[in-house]
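Sequence in, structure out. First:
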Amino acid sequence: MSTKLNIVYETEKTFKEENEVVENNNLKYIEVSNDKESFDTIVPFNVKFGEYYYVVYVEYDTGDSFSRTYSTIKLVDVYDNQKLAEETAEQIKKHSLAYKNGQAGSSVPIVNPAGKKYEIYAPWCGYFEKLVKVHIDHLLLKYNYN
């Protein structure tokens, strides 16, 4: 069985200079999506309310010739297995280094929670982009009352 999930977080934007924005993102918890078309990810395992899961996401800086945004986040996946979440984070770090050295493209090969290999687009790979950190947060699955 697969489950559609949303990651609930708050974003606070502050402005450093005229064209520089800092996004402070605070991941709060996970909830099952009640919307059939709008969700953050689909996990290939049964979830239980009140349990904790491992959320892997990337923090990166982005911009263009005229502006800069710091600490943007990109969800990678949600895992019920800590080791698999850690392996995914490590793969992203290795890929980022290979990209900087011209040895990789802008897609990262990772393993999903079911152990299946696939590729994700890496928006932190680009001329103006920079990987800041790969995070693994241990978040609670809460019941969505909406």
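Second:
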Amino acid sequence: MRFLFIRIVFCSLILVSLSNEKGFALDEAFITGDKAWDKCSNLQEKWLNTLHEIVLSSKPHLKESADLSLKWRFTVQKVNSLKFKYLLKNDPDRIIRDKGLRSFMELDWFWNDSRDLGITNPDFLKL
């Protein structure tokens, strides 16, 4: 089973590198200007689109579910990008850059941050 997962991941990465076609895309408004974050977001976008294509090619009857899942995952990425932009501007020391990718992408976020971001950016509350 593990070998199958590794093959799927490997094939997905090959498809990402060969694919020029885009399915869904992250909104330009959610690009942060931070090279590391934007590169990770771009890779996530490509990965999600590739997985979407794999599902559609192997299970076309799941198109509606696959589309909803992709839209939801992009919404999560947009929310995270807004959070990142907020931290970058208001408290950049809370962005962890020296403990690996996972620590970098998992933001140090509190309820009052959501409140403050919602006040300054009503789009955040709509997502």
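Remark: The chain has a mean pLDDT of 81.
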